[in-house]
Amino acid sequence: MTDRLLDxxxxxxxxxxxxxxxxxxxxxxxxxxxxxxxxxxxxxxKSTLLDVVGLVLRPSRPGRFTLAGSDxxxxxxxxxxxxxxxxxxxxxxxxxxxxxxxxxxxxxxNIRLSRDLLGLPADPNGEKRLIDALGLGGxxxxxxxxxxxxxxxxxxIARALAHRPPLVLADxxxxxxxxxxxxxxxxxxxxxxxxxxxxxxxVSHDWDLLSRFGLRRVEAQPGGNQTRFAG
Amino acid sequence: MRLLPPxxxxxxxxxVADFIHDWRVxxxxxxxxxxxxxxxxxxxxxxxxxxxxxxxRLLADPRNLEVMIVGTYQLGPKWFAExxxxxxxxxxxxxxxxxxxxxxxxxxxxxxxxGAEMVPSASxxxxxxxxxxxxxxxxxLLSHSAARQLGVSAGGTVTALISRTLGGExxxxxxxxxxxxxxxxxxxxxxxxxxxxxxxxxAEDYRDGRDTPMAVGERPFSSARLFxxxxxxxxxLADRLRAEGLEVRxxxxxxxxxxxxxxxxxFIFAIVAGxxxxxxxxSLASSLWANVDRKRRExxxxxxxxxxxxxxxxxxxxxxxxxxxxxAVLSVMLAYGVAHLVNVSLASNLNREEFVCLLRxxxxxxxxxxxxxxxxxxxxxxxxxxxxxDPAESLRDx
Lengths: 231, 398
What we know:
heterodimer, A: alpha/beta, Rossmann fold, 6-stranded mixed sheet, 5-stranded parallel sheet, globular, B: alpha+beta, 2 domains, 6-stranded mixed β-barrel, 4-stranded antiparallel sheet, 10 strands
């Protein structure tokens, strides 16, 4: 299945011992360029799911887990942190709930961070396209602390997309914005990802907002101290 | 060509950017380093300066290098050759029996001096202080007191009278001599003529009534003038000669005093430096540790974005290196400034070319390198903490 960007099945992640919380991903796949919305009430394990998909939380049973052609289950089994870090850098762009920007470098340097890390050549056209689309032209030389929260989220989107990762993970990217801004930011994120052909996984408690953009919905199925995902 | 792989380059740039962005904290750490290192450099400079000045003063008087041989021995050519080859030997020349090594001098104006010592000399004789040595059997140097009593100056002439009693008959030979130079008073206190070994040997042969002299390279001598190459070599040479059964005297007490001062100051410096450096390394380590704690979110974000684990370790190490370099540069500038002030304000107690506070470039370079290495060691604690930061921490508000 070459067009499967993310493919997970039979994965279990247990947190906090026997009394703790169990996340089970029976099946989850995302095709290249596809946008998926993960929804569910708060505390239902959406964030845990995102940690696992984002390669920062080690599943207790990885099952089958591939991302952009790499066998993530094997990397976890081998404890290969540096390889996992490289896979994160190359294949995933993150848009966090808040922040997600380095306070000590300018907006422009934040946007270029992932390309610099990967040693990719400068991409003036792509960079300009993102900056113009997100309306960041006047902010490039400011430090993140001088920006409003909405501006920071737009910078975070530019940073997540600048190196064209095949998968963009967004964790409640609009939760800290008012409804008008929230819709505008979500629109920018999904429109730009679609334009660049990037797969997107958005985690949100706000299906009303996501439903407006035609995302495929994967809903948490909570039950006691266990949550299952299938989709 | 890239000097560093991209992650290392990015890590370096980010660590520097953070160091500059957080300039207040950086400045505090740099100033704290300078507050420890600059006084240590000055203290070390004082130790070097005092010891060097004491040593230079000892060295300024070449008699401190002398190993005086007391008594009369049979010292053959082999003995001299071995002594010359010894690493501690600076200058050695044979001398004859002291009874035979005197002469009477008469100046042009008729003033005379009886019983002046004949001191054999040659090039590199420390007592000559760079003057050309006496040559042949007609050119000599006079000690200051001898020249004063004879009323001659450099370039003048004197007549030497060497007398002997042979077969009950008193005889004397007159030798016209040119005074090539007069030695300063500090070089030699007694009445003396510095002569070539040839002249000394000829005088002895004449006194002993030998008409066919033995060549200088074959005959034994009864004594020698011996100078060590360095102050540290004096004791070794003296011990060696004592072991051969010769009686020798040195100014060992003066030399030992300077060495004792050096040792004592070195010991005090080591204690002060040990306490100060130990304290600073601990304080820097805890500051860097606290820095890692303050920057947990940013470091976690870097890890999330795909910076390798080693980048988290490098982050505090790079900043420690920057602190070390900036602090060391500041300290060296301060220390040189203070050293200059000390030397200027105490200049009245010093001869020219002397220092109270002496900072040698080599010592400063060692101090800077040690600072750098200790700072890197201090950063490992924070680095270890950074290494254990979970990239998932950046995904939520912690």
